[in-house]
Amino acid sequence: MVRKRLALLATLRLICFLGLCVAGFYLIPSFPRLIAGLFFLLLAAFIVLVNRYFRWNDQKALLEKLLYVNTNEQAILHGQVNSFPDGKDHLDSYSYLDDLDIFGPRSLFHLLNRTTTSLGKARLSTLLRTPLLQIPDIQQQQQAIRALTQQPDKCQLLTAKGLLAGEKEGNLHSLTGWLSNPSRITGRKGLTFLRWLLVAYNLFSIGLYLATDLYAPLLTGVLLSWAFIGSFTGYISRQHLLISKKQAILDQYASILAVFNTMDPQGAAALQDLQTRTSTAHRAIRRLSQLASFFDQRLNVLVNIFLNSFLLYDLHCMAALEKWKETYKDRFHEWIDAVGDIESLNSLASFAFSNPTFIYPAPVQDTGLRLAATHLAHPLIPAAERIANDCSIGKDQRLILVTGSNMSGKTTFLRTIGVNLLLAQCGAPVCATAFSFTPMQLLTSLRVSDSLQEHTSYFMAELKKLQRIIHSLRGGIPSLVLIDEILRGTNSEDKTYGSEQFIRKLLQYPCLSFFATHDLSLGSLEKEMPGLVSNYCFESIIQGDELLFDYRLQQGIARNRNASFLMKKMDII
Prior knowledge:
alpha/beta; Rossmann fold; four-stranded mixed sheet; about 60% helix
């Protein structure tokens, strides 16, 4: 429909333009009133059609972005890759980020991300790196996400508006320098008076020249104008370098803020605070965008020569920009930071809307650490393939030993717990039917790799990870520790001893731990330390010549010998 309207407008514009040419041709020699009236009527129609065309073209562009947003959401629901950035540049291997697949292709960030600005991307990344640990903050975040989830049309409009202007990383950084520079034109009454006096003189000189052909006053005014501008040339050029080509990105931020301030906060304190802080932001930033666009016109040769010669265009633009700066510079950074918060919340709300079966977890403040979940599954696994498990830790034990063979699901289970706790502490819903938890920092050692650049072997890299975990625990912050099969690079006796001592070390600190291992002898710790250690396992099922896995967590120690079975089946032994 919009394309048809645009095509019709283009045709009408062409007709009006041709009509203008014909009317102008006949108007020049004869100047009849009828032709003159037709000329001005067609001129007015042409201007109206041009304006209407640009408005409809903007509407077309917005509809295309909305279609893109909806198509992307449908693709994600069908297990395809999110087309927004995956955040791989935020990845490091020194924390849970790599162990839990938080950044990179098909990561948690990739699943969540709907941000269109570098600040939004950074804010969502920061939240995943340093999730909320205070219950009131988590609850406020949940309220905000719930409120936005009930307004999906506006959430999608917010994303689409952000996509209309493709931001490049760091586009607004130079504005910090511009805002911090002192003004040199505004606030100086004598300079303002001379500026306007010279403009008035130039306009008078133009009229005098047209009436009498005297050009000396006009030439004098032009020379005075360029002398006046020349005294500020260095300053104006430096300021232009800081604020040039900012119209698109400023429009992007203004559009996001404008849409956000039409949303219903529904009593969510975080949204109400953001709206209070940004209620006038979109109009002010839009005005700055217009001024920056006008200032960029100084690069046009005709504008530079004619408007500076007679109207001191550079000085007037600079004065308007400085007036804006003096009015809003103390609030600008707060407004821009708010866009990051808005986009981060919008991403989490889009995730929540697309996963209506996920539930908002209940943070609990208790004398001890707790984590309990029913039908807990991994959100990165497609819904049709998820296997859910119940799990509870903190009430009857502080460390759960998880045994089982390779491919049985131990590591995926540990990642499931970690990823859902991270979501919970971001205020987002989790992939479970019930989930309660004490806020805790995440400490993991699930994926270890050596480094030729750092001359680090696999075994030493693993020890360094375990060392970082112990150093973090010494800070006394409640923690959830996830460990997968440590000390693989040593002999079995040394591995058993080291694993046991590490378990005893963990129990000295305020933490809950899941410890996955192939070492069945560690299962004896349950009897030695009742109420502290419990045994759970993922057991394989051998049916005839087939090895099957149900990926169900059960109490006890894994007993089936998968390796021997597979080696016999493959005629290795």
